[in-house]
Design goal:
Length: 266
């Protein structure tokens, strides 16, 4: 199998529970690049929350962020960007606020919330590092040019929230569940596969020459697009069911195991 492009998800795939890239995973990326394989990330994170990991492992390609809605180089040059329809985005924000669900959204690589309430999100101290901005009800001003929204719930209600959101926005928004506390919200048809397609076309790489690694529902589209897909041992069952191979758990460096086996031939 001649892999020319390796695309990996971040959380639950490349990043361990401490949100770090292990030395073994970093080495696997380095060795793949030395072999001539191009490597990048495809993540639901905003670019600003992903770029430091790309710099850490010296990625040689732009990063696919916001589930394919944004592609930027590590130095911030925009390759591609897609915005959710302004009216639909505002409706989604208002719908969440009416239901007392926490929602955040991304505009020009900045994170917005209606109001900062640290008690609603135990990890907010990490979010502060990327300068959260408050809309404070000014949605006319702060609901334009949104590339992605994220609904968060740490109380375990995501599985009950998701169908309500989907019922309201079926045919208007895609809403993959990305963890037990997170729903990503993007325009219909925007996904990681779209981002990979843009990069693959730029570098003359065919889908059959692409390997992807992931763990959750927002990875389904890229699993369907790439020639070879690897699900993490901790992946959702929906991902494992369509994967070409299943590797070890994220805490056991399953990403590195897959790269070593299918790209490096170890």
């Amino acid at each position: 199998m001649a892999i020319k492009l390796l695309v990996t998800d971040l959380d639950g795939t490349l990043l361990n529970g401490e949100k770090k890239i292990s030395s073994r995973n970093a080495l696997a990326i380095q060795r793949a690049q030395e072999k001539g394989v191009k490597v990048t990330f495809a993540t639901g994170r905003m670019h600003k929350a992903a770029v430091r990991f790309a710099q850490e492992v010296n990625l040689d390609l732009p990063i696919i962020s916001c589930n394919g809605s944004v592609i930027k180089s590590c130095d911030g040059k925009t390759i591609f960007e897609h915005h959710i329809d302004d009216k639909i985005a505002r409706e989604a924000i208002e719908f969440c606020l009416e239901n007392n669900w926490h929602i955040q959204w991304y505009i020009d690589d900045e994170l917005y919330v209606n109001e900062i309430k640290p008690d609603l999100w135990t990890g907010y101290e990490n979010v502060f590092k990327i300068d959260v901005k408050e809309a404070k009800g000014q949605l006319d001003k702060y609901s334009r040019r949104i590339v992605q929204m994220v609904i968060l719930d740490k109380a375990g209600h995501i599985q009950s929230i998701a169908p309500k959101v989907r019922d309201r926005f079926t045919g208007r928004l895609d809403t993959p569940i990305t963890s037990d506390h997170c729903i990503d919200v993007v325009s219909i048809g925007m996904n990681k596969a779209k981002g990979i397609e843009v990069l693959a076309r730029e570098y003359g790489i065919r889908p059959s020459e692409i390997m992807v690694v992931g763990d959750s529902d927002n990875d389904l589209a890229m699993f369907g697009y790439a020639g070879f897909s690897v699900a993490m041992g901790n992946a959702f069952e929906s991902i494992k069911a369509v994967a070409d191979a299943i590797t070890d758990d994220v805490e056991a460096d399953g990403f590195a195991t897959a790269v070593e086996k299918y790209i490096l031939g170890d």
